User: Fold this.
Amino acid sequence: MSDSDSANAPKKLFIKTYGCQMNVYDSERMGDALGVSGYQQVDSPEGADMILLNTCHIREKAAEKIYSELGRFRPLKEANPDLKIGVAGCVAQAEGEEIIRRQPMVDLVVGPQAYHRLPKMLEHIKDGGHVVDTDFPEEDKFTLLPRGPKAKRAPSAFLTVQEGCDKFCAFCVVPYTRGAEVSRPPARLLDEARDLIERGVVEITLLGQNVNAYEADGWSLARLLREMAKLDGLERLRFTTSHPNDMGDDLIAAFGEEEKLMPYLHLPVQSGSDKVLKAMNRKHTAESYLRLLERIRAARPDIALSGDFIVGFPGEEEADFQATLELCKEVRYAAAYSFKYSPRPGTPAADRAHVDESTKGERLKRLQTLLTEHQFDFQQSMVGKTMPVLLERAGRDPGQMVGKSPYLHAVHMKAEAGLAGKIVQATILHSERNSLAGKVV
Ligand code: 5AD
Ligand code: SF4
Assistant:
């Protein structure tokens, strides 16, 4: 930044984040880093000096949505030619130069592995240049991203510990857009956790595309969790997203032994049919998944399980779909995310014969009806119980706050705003559609 720049008022930065929690973390870190370059974040694109779209490419039409979103920014760019527009995230990685070819008003395209180069890129685009950086450099981008002053943070934070995936599920773009598995060194992660705690964070969710494959300096995810749990001031730990084949014995044991590790596990299975699981290249069966859940439940009987499902994968027949319903009935997930299969160019399944859209739609509806019923049952089973709730933010009504249960439910209750960041004992009074209502005891 030049001296004349620093004399000016802060420039306004609008970041819009799509997709997963890893993008949320990346956006926070990019916001911090651009803060050091003189940008202050704002809530709307109107009047911004820079707009950054942090994109997701996991399902269909992602790129088209980004192009139409960019089209909506055209009048803003026409009104303010100094407005800088950047595209980050997985669409940036997948589309690269094509984005600037189709939308020449875009100044900057940056893939998820190159965010630490953002401050340099800003220098480049200052005088009208364009930059496209979709490299996979060796350096740890997060350590190199400037942090900015110690601003107070919300009580819960994400911390990316691992990126990329080596599993190559036949439907998934992640191994292509985020690259091979890379784990960040434990010492840096412990430092970053301490920094978050100093900023008021009491709950940390460790993130990775395949987080339980974490391995760095001989540390497993279980060891990282156990060491993090020793940090004073940190009350709760979670991690997501995991692959069944990487649920090691030490990680399962941690659920039973580590008090700060919350009883919630997101463990996608995708399908209950062995034929489909094989075609998906999942490298596990429905049975091996169910046996794994038995071991996890033996370690932590109250654990809440959640999963991801894809319906209408190429080759899925009614009997295969039935097997998925059966698996769900056996597990009874506390929460679940289900999607129609959407072909992703460049992935092995994209060129296979597809299930027709109406069958996909009909199966999704049936699956979601069942999953919602289980989710409600699980919520209902909380009623009358007393549990620790982390108060996080103001609620709908004055004098109300929203907190988080150990099982990741939003809990509404009467509480003073000053209690944000505190864990209170609360009794659950009743279950609402997507949340619980409770009272402090
Ligand atoms: N089509 C539909 N759903 C997908 N997912 C990943 N790729 C696809 C795809 N091509 C889902 C999986 C994954 C979640 C993050 O998104 O269920 O676990
Ligand atoms: Fe994608 Fe997850 Fe499979 Fe990796 S394990 S390829 S991220 S669905």
User: Anything to note?
Assistant: The chain has a mean pLDDT of 93.
